[in-house]
Design goal:
By secondary structure, the protein is α/β, with parallel strands linked by helices. It folds into three domains: about 290 residues, HUPs (Rossmann fold); about 110 residues, Four Helix Bundle (Hemerythrin (Met), subunit A); about 50 residues, no CATH class. About 45% of the residues lie in helices and about 15% in strands. The protein has 18 helices and 18 strands. It has a five-stranded parallel β-sheet with strand order 7-4-3-12-13, sandwiched between helices. Helix 10 packs across helix 16, helix 13 runs antiparallel to helix 14 and helix 17 runs antiparallel to helix 18. The longest helix has 23 residues. The chain is elongated. The two termini are about 40 Å apart.
């Protein structure tokens, strides 16, 4: 039986206990990138928090299947079906074909996606692979009376729904309705301001690069329909969790629900998980501001991508997070200190110090060690599961990581706990410690530490506790912390 799990459900506007349709199994859909430009670090924050959610669910005993789309057609520069196709704009900007742009930026996206420790989705589907599915859904919506043809395009008729603004409170609905009425680029073919395009024809753009035959003429799909069809293609008529950024809530996810449930005739997705914005001091990160700050750019500046992941995990996913290089520099220091602590754990234990430093071999040594205190390991794993299953409290999970180093237990147990936590945190502290050249403790320092421990033992035996305490303090000034344990005196670098 999986561990109980709860998180904030945007649809119910409260923290809900998560109950999947099939016990122990989770079907999840996450909105992928529009591959017309690089994904900035704000986009990547969303994918880091989704990755943490997936790994947290798996840590708690669920089997997760995740599907993600790649938007390579149909996403206009305005989410309200106006402006230029983003893919076409990217092709014009760089004097390439649309598919060359899609291929280049898809690869760039996954380079950064992988670098921050994310696990790739089980299914990744470009929108251009699914044109027959899009056409079939549009035909069905027309047959059911939820769509209409006007000006050559096919529109979804939002007036046929009892509640279009499913994510919004009464006050928010009023505000959204005002916003829709004030849309400066009015599409006169729409019956209602909130209607949205399911299929565009040449009446919209004569120069569209990607287009297909359809019952309504040569054209291409609207942006919103792809997520509905791709999720149904791979996950069936029901999904448990749909993920995205808060900017997807309206109109994208609102429109997904409208067309999906009208097409299916039943509820489509019960739980919606949204991550908040990453801001800089000028406001929300955006591709429209000029130069795009990406994970690859951070790497070029000398930052480890996992430091950026650590920065994101220390904040709650539902809170806006402000980025600055000063804060990132502080995060580098904190991350490196954790790596040094892991190095100290390894160096403090003769068996660990002698173990094969290949990461997998080393972790197998830790996991199979008879020195691991199973009771302490379980105690920390239970606390960790409680934290991550409580609205994905990654900041509390990071706090527990710090608590591991303070725990009154041996180095093997601490490393086993850190290894366990990393199934979700994915910070690779042990890997970094093993790879760090400084993991080999200076022989002179090691000899000094052993001598000091022996001098302290002799002082304690002579009941000269003042000298023993002085030696402990002396070691601390050298960055060495010692602890008296059942297995003898253990030391770590601090």
């Amino acid at each position: 039986m999986p561990h109980s799990f709860s998180f904030y459900n945007t649809l119910s506007r409260k923290i809900d206990d998560f109950v999947p349709r099939e016990e122990g199994k989770v079907s999840m859909y996450t909105c992928g990138p529009t591959v017309y430009h690089f994904a900035h670090i704000g986009n990547i924050r969303t994918y880091i928090m989704q990755d943490a959610l997936i790994k947290a669910l798996e840590y708690c005993g669920y089997d997760v299947k995740r599907v993600m789309n790649i938007t390579d057609v149909g996403h206009l520069s305005s989410d309200a079906d106006t402006g230029e196709d983003k893919m076409l704009a990217g092709a014009k900007r760089e004097h390439k074909t649309v598919m060359e742009i899609a291929d280049f930026y898809t690869k760039a996206f996954f380079k950064d996606f992988d670098a921050v420790g994310n696990k790739r989705p089980d299914v990744i589907e470009p929108a251009t692979n699914c044109i027959p599915e899009f056409i079939h859904m549009v035909e069905t919506l027309l047959e059911k009376g939820y769509a209409y043809v006007a000006g050559g395009n096919v529109y979804f008729d939002t007036s046929k729904l009892e509640d279009y603004y499913v994510f919004s409170s009464a006050i928010e609905k009023e505000e959204l309705q005002v916003g829709v009425r004030d849309d400066v680029e009015e599409d006169t073919a729409k019956k209602n301001k909130t209607d949205f395009v399911l299929w565009f024809t040449k009446s919209k753009f004569e120069d569209q690069a990607l287009k297909w035959d359809s019952p309504w003429g040569v054209g291409y799909p609207g942006w919103h329909i792809e997520c509905s069809c791709i999720s149904m293609k791979h996950l069936g008529e029901y999904i448990d969790i749909h993920c995205g950024g808060v900017d997807n809530i309206f109109p994208h996810h609102t429109n997904e629900i409208a067309q999906s449930e009208s097409y299916l005739g039943h509820e489509w997705c019960k739980y919606w998980f949204h991550s908040n914005h990453l801001n800089d001091r000028a406001g929300k990160m955006s591709k429209s501001k000029g130069a795009v700050l990406t994970v690859s750019v951070l790497q070029e500046k000398g930052y480890d991508p996992l430091v950026y992941r650590f920065f994101c995990l220390q904040s709650h996913y539902r809170k806006p997070l402000e980025f600055s290089f000063d804060v990132l520099d502080n995060t580098v220091t904190a991350y490196n200190n954790l790596v040094k602590k892991v190095e100290g754990l390894i160096a403090s234990d003769d068996a660990l110090k002698a173990a094969d430093k290949n990461l997998e071999s080393f972790l197998n040594t830790v996991r199979s060690s008879a020195d691991v205190d199973k009771a302490v390991l379980k105690e920390f794993e239970d606390k960790f599961a409680d934290a991550i299953s409580n609205d994905l409290n990654t900041s509390m999970a990071v706090t527990l990581l710090y608590d591991v180093f303070k725990a009154d237990t041996n180095a093997s147990t601490k490393l086993a706990i850190i290894d366990s936590f990393d199934k979700v945190l994915s910070l690779d502290l042990i890997g970094h410690a093993l790879a760090d050249d400084s993991a080999d403790i200076d022989p002179e320092l090691e000899a000094y530490i052993k001598d000091a421990i022996e001098r302290r033992a002799a002082a304690k035996k002579a009941k000269d506790f003042a000298t023993a305490d002085a030696i402990r303090d002396e070691l601390l000034t050298k960055g060495v912390e010692i602890k008296d344990t059942r297995e003898g005196v253990k030391w770590t670098l601090v």
